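A reminder from the course coordinator: this example appears on the midterm review sheet, so study it carefully.

Given structure:
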């Protein structure tokens, strides 16, 4: 998963809304489409971008495709990015790496 794909996916308000809608439950594409004033092809495209960015996972069950968040990837990507640009987070992250290397048995 590339950060560029994640941020491209998050740049769209409808995709952020879809992520929020999926935050508490797994839903079918039809259920998601029923919530938003968009065509089925538009919802499908948004879900495809989110899946390509590694933010959601799809699973076909019979005739329905179910979508759910992949929270570990989203959190890891955003936290890692935020820590890199944060004036206090960057040094802490480097310090943590240094400590981890020092603890590794040789």
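Designed residues:
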């Amino acid at each position: 998963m590339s950060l560029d794909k994640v941020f491209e996916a998050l740049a769209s308000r409808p995709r952020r809304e879809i992520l929020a809608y999926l935050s508490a439950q797994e839903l079918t594409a039809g259920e998601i489409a029923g919530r938003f004033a968009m065509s089925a092809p538009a919802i499908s495209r948004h879900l495809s971008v989110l899946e390509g960015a590694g933010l959601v996972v799809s699973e076909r069950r019979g005739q329905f495709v179910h979508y759910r968040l992949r929270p570990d990837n989203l959190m890891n990507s955003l936290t890692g990015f935020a820590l890199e640009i944060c004036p206090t987070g960057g040094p802490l992250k480097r310090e943590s790496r240094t400590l981890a290397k020092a603890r590794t048995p040789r």
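The two ends are 31 Å apart (CA to CA). The domain at 3-70 is CATH 1.10.10.10 (Arc Repressor Mutant, subunit A).
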